[in-house]
Amino acid sequence: MNTIWQPTLEGRDGPKYRAVVDAIREATADGTLPVGQKLPPVRDLAWQLSITPGTVARAYTILTDEGVLESHVGRGTFVAAPKSQMQEDIWSRSLRRLEATDPGHVSLFAPRLADMGQVALIREAMKHAAEAEPALFLNYPTRDYYQPVREAVRDWLSDLPLGPFGEEDVVLTHGGQNGICVILQAALTGSRPVLLVEELSYAGFRRAAELMRAEVVAVRMDEQGMDPEDLDRLARIHGAQMVCLTPEVQNPTGGHMPLARRKALLAVAERHDMQVLEDDCYRMGAAREPSLRALAPDRCWHVSSISKSLTPALRVGFALAPLGRTAELRKAAEYGYFGLSQPLAETTRLLLTHPRIHEVVARVQARMADYVRVAVNVLGGYDLRWDPEVPFLWLTLPAGWRAAGFCRAAERDGVQIRSADEFSLRDGRAPHAVRIAINGNLSLEVFESAMERLRALLSDPPEQISV
Question: What is the CATH number of the domain that holds 187?
């Protein structure tokens, strides 16, 4: 359905694209533009408002990234459903439906760790925490209370090249995603800050940016990660405040950023006085290079968690600020959620200091590597990017397949994977590739069967290209 809606830009200050953004946002909020309503084509609206098509296109892109609008190739741009109706995307809903009704369904949607003894250690830690003094369960937590927990985290991270930090610099978060949100709250300023990400990147960066009303811009990347020249160009154009990077394990491609590229990107960040957010949540093994924070401790924020080494269930993460900015990070956390609950913090302390914890972590890593080897043995004849210390694989599809069509075909065969489109901005271009997560909850036999189903699909593309 076409709309006869036409905004007015009279009386609106600031850039024209921002005026268009504000007009559309107001119209969707008051119901003038209801959910599902089609907006005018870019050129039509530009002609009506006497502005350039590029100005309208930029406004549409910003609102699409925010989730206010949604774009469908060949159909146009529409008002999207409110966030409250979009808490879970179609893949997540489909995942739960299939797992509930089909025990043979295999989810390779997100990494799941094998239990190599960590469940027993978690239960033991919870039991001891439950037997603590009553004050643990009756009082608000205080900053001093967390000192033993922060010391345990400091020791846990001590073998990583993170640059200078002490227990007083550790901020406890509810997992890595919460850590990203807290860092953005502490670091970004202004009403519409700009965040730069790789053109294929972790969707959590964009979701956190939405909460901060930040604009997200994609930077071109190559086999080594983000392109320094394109970063320099976009930082200059947009006046970006922060760039988000995953140097140890790039999500979703699994790539590793060499030292020279890290230094080149940090040089660009210094030239434009940008902050750097370093996400280290997907690394399972030892770090191969100095972290960005070690290389530039005055501008790098670091976030990690225990989700890929022990368990994602506890929702425990750690954030570090650049030198001299810990107070800002701590304030964002304390104002946001007062810190972890004391029973959870005590459970974390007991878990990270358990005498068998490093043995168990090594066993988890070894077991997950077994799954990677199975996948490589089955799919190695295709363009597959893998690493035994990374809990997912990146598969570039052969001629005849498109990512969306391949994912649908795989799901019909009982295997759920992620399309490259889910890691690009809504107006970005994604390669014909998929991410295959390692599911350690499965037996190796069931996992191998899933890989064989994928191989059968790869060898038999449709006669007509799926889109």
Answer: 3.40.640.10
